[in-house]
Amino acid sequence: MGGSESKSSGATTAAGVIAGLVILALGVGVVSLMGDSSGSSGRRTMKAPGRDTRIFRDDFEKNTASYFRNLRKK
């Protein structure tokens, strides 16, 4: 019986290691998505206020009043 317990323990350990690696990979993916939000252009983005899209942060900061004025028009 000692041999089957050893195999079971090894399988449990391997499953635990695999599960840990999967959780780690998912965590890294989430962190990269929530990172500085810069694409290949290097420009940072942000969630557009009042919308479910993303916009370039520097464009928004240049003229916030205009952004909100145009948002109310739509």
UniProtKB/TrEMBL annotation:
Keywords per UniProt: Membrane, Transmembrane, Transmembrane helix
Spans traversing the lipid bilayer: 12-34
Name of this protein: Uncharacterized protein
Species this protein is from: Eucalyptus globulus (Tasmanian blue gum)
Superkingdom, taxonomy of origin: Eukaryota
PANTHER family xref list: ERYTHROCYTE MEMBRANE PROTEIN 1-LIKE, PSAD1
